[in-house]
Amino acid sequence: MPNLSLDELKAAIDRDIPGARIATAPRPSEEAPRKKGEHARADMLATDDLVVAPAQLPAVASYLRDALGYEHLSNITAVDYLADGVIELVYHFAHVAGGVAVVKARVPREHPELPTLTAEWPGAAFQEREAYDLYGVQFAGHAELRRIYMWDEFEGFPMRKDFSKQGDKYLDEAE
């Protein structure tokens, strides 16, 4: 069942996994007029995309594979919304015959944790480690959640918006 529209995908999830989707503010179609020099802060979390509750992510991922025929988890990435206190995980599921389903889950920056998908989607292992290493996202149940790019002694998460980009305490002073 490839090439589902976003609305068809949302309807299928709502029908078969009640309560999996979370309500989000819709993306505004047009920006409201402002006076010259006046700046409005865009609602970065406003979206029409499919956003699911973190606890429901494994059920939604299994449903995409088993009921809708998506065969490949091609990408997991993270986005840091510093001002909103949220880290958003973005999952791309692909169907070989064509079509991609994009699923998002949001976790608080202070405690970014959601279930791992490695039991059902083994290819998620390295991508979850990447999100852990660069953003600090914890994946409950991941068998080998450790750094993948940065060395073990590295402190912090370099892709977070509040990570200091000034200086490098890891460089040798003699250099």
Q: Explain this structure to me?
A:
The longest helix has 12 residues, at 124-135. The protein is globular and about 50 Å long. The strands form two sheets. A four-stranded mixed sheet has the order 1-4-3-2. It has 175 residues and is of the alpha/beta class. The protein has helices at residues 6-16, 57-66, 124-135, and strands at residues 50-52, 72-81, 86-94, 100-108, 113-115, 138-140. Strand 5, helix 3 (124-135) and strand 6 form a beta-alpha-beta unit. The mean pLDDT is 88. Helix content is 19%, strand content 21%. The termini are far apart.
Looking at this protein, list some descriptive labels.
alpha/beta; 21% strand; 175 residues; globular; 3 helices; four-stranded mixed β-sheet
Topology:
Layout: H1 6-16, E1 50-52, H2 57-66, E2 72-81, E3 86-94, E4 100-108, E5 113-115, H3 124-135, E6 138-140
Parallel strand pairs: 1-4, 5-6
Antiparallel strand pairs: 2-3, 3-4
Number of strands: 6
Decide which structural class fits the backbone. Answer: alpha/beta
What sequence of helices (H) and strands (E) makes up the elements?
A: HEHEEEEHE
Helix content: 10-25%
Percent of sequence in beta strands: 15-25%
Major β-sheet strand ordering: 1-4-3-2
Largest sheet: 4 strands, mixed
Let me know the average pLDDT: 88
Poorly predicted sequence stretches spanning 5 or more consecutive residues: none
Report the span from N to C terminus: 58 Å
Count helical runs.
3
Bulk shape: globular
| Global Rg | 19 Å
